[in-house]
Amino acid sequence: MEIPYTALSSDALQGVIEEFISREGTDYGEQEYSLAEKIAQVRAQLESGEVVLTFDEESETCNLVRLR
Question: What are the pLDDT tens digits along the chain (68 aa)?
């Protein structure tokens, strides 16, 4: 189920984004980004609609999914 990211408190959204970013593991690109830069990139993607926040009721987990 898709849920609006705006429905989460700022702290809850920050936690979801940080947990998502921590799943990445190692950076594989030519340029490395700081945690703050990665968070800003994900927030911008949420705001633009490129990424949506989903919740799986069965596993009770949140995920960020790229639409485009």
Answer: 999 999 999 999 999 999 998 886 656 567 888 889 999 999 999 999 999 999 999 999 999 999 87
Task: Please tell me the chain's helix, strand, coil percentages from 3-state DSSP, rounded to the nearest 5.
Answer: 45, 20, 35
d(CA 23, CA 3): 21
Report the predicted TM-score, pTM, of the whole model to 2 decimal places: 0.83
Domains, the chain, ordered by start: 2-22+32-66 (1.10.10.610)
In terms of DSSP bridges, do strands 2-3 and 51-56 run parallel, antiparallel, or are they unpaired?
Answer: antiparallel
